[in-house]
Amino acid sequence: MQLDDLDFADDLALLSQTQQQMQEKTTSVAAASAAIGINIHKKKSKILRYNTSCNNPVTIDGEDLEDVKTFTYLGSIIDEHGESDADVKARIGKARAAYLQLKNVWNSKQLLTNTKVGISNTNVKTVLLYDAETWRTTKATIQKIQVLINSCLRKILRIRWPDTISNNQLWERTNQFQAEEEIMKKHWKWIGHTLRKALNCVTSKP
Description:
The protein is of the alpha+beta class and 206 residues long. The chain has two domains: 5-68, no CATH class; 83-195, no CATH class. It is built from seven helices and eight strands. The chain is elongated. The mean pLDDT is 90.
C-alpha cells in the first residue's frame, strides 16, 4: 500500500516518488477541482523535493509552482532532508512566547510552586514538545530544548544570580524529568502505537 496524499480541512499534500507522478497528480487534482468550481491557489501551492536531484518544474496551467526547502504541515516543519532542526527552533520560539504570555501567573504570590510548574507543563512544555515523537534529535537540539525548560523552571522558583542550584536539584525540586528522557518516551510510545496497528495500515509500512 502506498500513501498518495495527506488531507486536512482544505489543505492537500500530494506525495509522489517521481517528478512525473507529481505532475500527473497535480494536473488531475487541478482538473477535478475546476470541474466543481474550485480553483487551486497557485501562489500558495509549493513543491518540496526530498533527497532528489531532479529539479524539473511542476506546473498548473503552464505556471511553475514554487520550490521550497521547508514545508509546514499541521504545525510541524518538514525540510528537504528530513531533519528536525527547523521544527525544533520554531517550537522553542512558540514555547518561549507561551511562557511570556503567562507572566502574571509566574509572578503570582498566591499560587503554589507546584501549581505553577503544572501550568508550565500544560501550557508551555506541551507547545515545546509538540510532535517530538517524530523528531530526529541530536545532542545539540536536546540541549537547546533543555536550556529553555531549565530557564522557565528557574524563573518559576525565583532563582536568580548570584543564587544558583544544579540542574539535578532543579529537576528534583520541580519533579521534572530531563528533556531527553521525555522525548525518548514519546518516541517509544509512538513506535508502540504504530506496531499495534493492523498490518495493512499505511503507518505500519516502512
